[in-house]
Amino acid sequence: MPSISQIIYENSHKPLSIEEIMRFSGKSRHKVESIIYTLEKNCLLDVLNENAIKKFYLKKNAKKEDVENCINNASSKPTKLLKFVYKPEILILICIIIFLIISAELFFRLYYWHSGKHIAVDENERCLKEMKIDNLPTDFKNNNFANFTRTGYWKDDPIMGITLKENLTEAYFFPTGANQTQMMVFYGEHTHNSRGMTGLDEFQIKKPKNVKLRIALFGDSFTCGGEAPLFFGMANILKELIPNSEIQNFCVGGRGIEAMYTRYAIQAKKYKPDILIFNIYIDDLQRPFGCLTLVPNLTISNGRIIIGLRKYPTLKNFYYNYSLPKFESYFLKHIIYAYNQNTQYPKFMKQGRELFEAMLEDIKNQTKEQNSTLIVSLIQSPTPNNVEINEYSKLSSILKQKNIPYLDTTAYFASKRIHYRNQSFYYVQDKDALSHYSVIGYALHAQGLKNILQIKKIINYTPEYYFANSYYKTLLYLLPEELPLQMAGHIRTIAPFQIINVNYTTNNTVINSTNSISG
Fold it and tell me: Exposure of 343 by Cβ count < 10 A (0-12 exposed, 13-18 middle, 19+ buried)?
């Protein structure tokens, strides 16, 4: 094959296209284009357009040695791309791409402006932006914040993050009795004592002598008794099922395993409970990785959980120290957000399982020191996805390996379903695929925990019950499964309300003195 310089010089009288030079020399297009570009740059070639095809030929004053030197120099240097003048389609393509990016940027800016949402790479960044822009210092739109303080049942703790407010009562009043001189009071799940525990009871640090078993509950809104009257929640029914027991409910609705651990380590340990029960709704595993204004700072060191200082210990500190991005691409952030929505959930669930495994080991060691017993119950949604099914199975395996007694609510509910004619043990609403337990669901969960304590011989045997309730404002009936007990009249009831006397002649009625957040 002749060299490129030889082909060009011998055909100096005849213009050649790049394709013809490639065919004569056997060289690649990239190589030929590079040499053509070099020769043209050194003013040794002229360009001729024939039928929209560029052809090249040597100038009359070009010498052969100049052509060879120029080609040799081009071969010894890094290959250069041909000028865009020889590739107009590349320039057009780049212009189209730039136009599309600008159009996408404008489209997403308009979309987020119209929707009222904040652009973010994930839900955590969106949460921080909402807090900074919409909520603080006062949320005039939804009334969730007032002067850097939450208006609902949550409160911000500098160490624990989100926990429950103290001395809060959610109560609903209905006149009853002759001349309506009495009131039925329905207490809701957001009823907290002076220590931020869910319930009306107050507790001494030292266990009273008449209390045989002190039980501490930890969990999310399932443990708080979400969507049920306070007296139909898991904690109160468990107290009814276990004689001479004391139930301290350290739940935090809407939070996960991070709140359970911090409330145990900072608050519950000093009460020295005999039994610790952690109710784990599977979604609780991913909640420690939520918004920085909600969660504590937990790390693992030598197998122990370390509770560190939070980046933003107070809402006011967050407001004055968090800076919004000065420039951000809505188009790129939207793409990243869509990607994170599909990948972060399983990643956070896995990280949460690993964190909870370390928590279990840490709590086990501490319960040995206090001579108490750790029990775990696993709560699954009625329509779990593949990630939730997988994590539920892995948690079950971990608990078996660590020899920690646990309640498998999926299996336990399945064993009871035939007795309840396959009714759901959850409240299912139109807007939500999952809500919380029904009254029967809470009762069965409490009974399942009682059975674990019986199996571990921590408490004596007590009857197993069927539970009956037609409406959450009516009585819950406890019917012994053993027929002789039923025949003997050992049927119990739990009321969802208290009856109080009302004195209408004074302004100091219970209605006026109760701090009610709704009703």
Answer: exposed
